[in-house]
Specification:
mainly alpha; 13 helices; elongated; 375 residues; three-stranded antiparallel beta sheet
Length: 375
């Protein structure tokens, strides 16, 4: 028991120094915590709060805390306030399925690069594509970086030596003009075809299309206002709408004749159909009035792809096809950037370079030149 200068008992972990200040200290899991205050009440408050934090969050147990404990604290207390809901769900899902089974029960101070390498190796052995493995590495790097910043571990175990096999990224299918005509002809009659046509005419991301409400349509000026993105939570099976990740995602898109006609037909078709009160204001829903997840759209697109003889299409393929048609028809990249909601012009220019390369090949093949020497 500590005492003040007059010999009065102050309680466990508290005492008064010779200069009159009050010092509070205690030991938790071999680590000592000390602080000094002008007032006894402040010292007692700090001591109580710090003891509580140590025993409940595990944040102070730098050498004994498990990786699972740190991940939960890092996600819930440190980074979740600045993340979108779907990003938090994604982080938690990837961690629990691919990271935790390998290092979750290890003490955070014991994790070495070789353990992190094992996580990546196991993910690739399970068939995870390079992009998904890259995200696992990013999550681990970020959570261990935060642990270093908070002085829980001296160094980040995700070092330069922790690598994964990049492999070749599967090239996304972008429809040519002829293929798009085949798609429009053969796809008609398939369920969700109106959604496909709408994306081919607006370049919306699938989540942005799903989040589109009737009140976001300006009928008089033939505009739509993109204000959010819809995400399907696989755990709760609920559809959640968030604001776009970047300011560039909030935008106004003029409607083509094709897009305007889709909205007119959707408005008419929804008359007399079942209406879900929860989703009654959303434009693109299933026959039961409930939104569909991206997988349902892509499954239908896969069937149309096979029918017209092109590599597997996705909703993102349709978005890129729209962008390609825009550039082929002379739209300026800066204008296209705003329509697509790209945060950076470099993202749009990547599409532009792809299109100009195709045009270069096409134009060169049209040339009729004199026979080469020796031909």
């Amino acid at each position: 028991m500590g005492k003040d200068l007059r010999g009065k008992e102050l309680g466990q972990g508290l005492y008064q120094t010779e200069n009159g200040t009050y010092r509070a200290r205690f030991t938790y899991l071999d680590k000592q915590y000390t602080n000094t205050f002008d007032k006894l009440s402040e010292a007692r408050e700090w001591l109580a709060e710090t003891k509580y934090d140590c025993s409940h969050s595990g944040i102070a147990a730098s050498t004994h805390m498990t990786v699972d404990t740190w991940f939960d604290y890092w996600l819930d207390k440190i980074i979740s306030p600045r993340l979108k809901y779907n990003t938090i769900v994604s982080y938690r899902g990837r961690y629990s399925s691919k990271i935790s089974p390998h290092i979750g029960m290890m003490q955070i101070s014991e994790v070495k690069p070789l353990h992190c390498q094992h996580v990546l190796n196991a993910a690739q052995e399970d068939g995870e594509v390079p992009g998904s493995v890259s995200k696992l590495k990013s999550i681990m790097h970020a959570m261990f970086d935060s642990a270093v910043e908070n002085q829980l571990i001296p160094t980040n175990p995700i070092t330069k030596s922790v690598k994964y096999v990049h492999g070749k990224c599967e090239k996304r299918t972008i429809l040519t003009v002829d293929q798009q005509e085949d798609f429009m002809r053969e796809g008609e009659g398939y369920v969700h075809f109106d959604a496909f046509v709408f994306v081919l005419n607006t370049g919306l991301r699938c989540g942005e299309m799903q989040a589109l409400r009737w009140q976001d349509v300006d009928w008089a000026n033939r505009l739509i206002y993109v204000k959010g993105t819809m995400y399907h939570d696989r755990n709760t099976h609920e559809f959640v709408v968030n604001s776009p990740k970047t300011k560039a995602g909030i935008r106004t898109i003029p409607l083509t004749e094709g897009a305007f006609n889709v909205l007119m037909m959707k408005k008419e078709a929804q008359k007399g159909r079942p209406v879900s009160m929860q989703y009654r204001e959303y434009i693109f829903t299933g026959s039961d009035g409930i939104p569909l997840n991206t997988k349902a759209y892509n499954k239908c697109l896969s069937r149309i792809s096979a029918k017209i003889g092109v590599p597997k299409l996705t909703m993102h393929s349709l978005r890129h096809t729209f962008a390609t048609r825009c550039l082929e028809n002379g739209m300026k990249p800066k204008v296209l950037q705003e329509i697509l909601g790209h945060a950076s012009i470099s993202m749009t220019m990547d599409l532009y370079v792809h299109v100009t390369e195709d045009e270069k090949i096409s134009e060169m093949r049209k040339l009729i030149l004199p026979r080469a020497m020796g031909g």
